[in-house]
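Priority: low. Protein: Large ribosomal subunit protein uL23. Input follows.
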Amino acid sequence: MNSVYDVIIRPIVSERSFDLMEQGKYTFEVAKNAPKEEIADAVEKLFNVHVVKVNTMNVSGKKKRVRYQTPGTTRSWKKAVVTLAAGETIEIFGNQQAAE
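Result:
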């Protein structure tokens, strides 16, 4: 891999990922061929934190019907859940507060 931006593609924004953030776990879409060690190094360099654990999973594409019932699938991708050392956080979205 060339840079950390080739490994970490984007953060995953979902209700479950926000719940995991309270436990110090952050979810990212990563390159399909990136190993756990490379993902941990990229997160440490990019956000200046210490990674304790990395869990990865391959998310397969869902079957969808495309225009006139033509079968197709959405793209498959790889997800990584990164656990940080106790007391460390990543400010992914800055200091934005949830709308109440």
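Residues 26 and 82 are 5 Å apart (CA to CA). Residues 96-100 have pLDDT under 50 and may be disordered.
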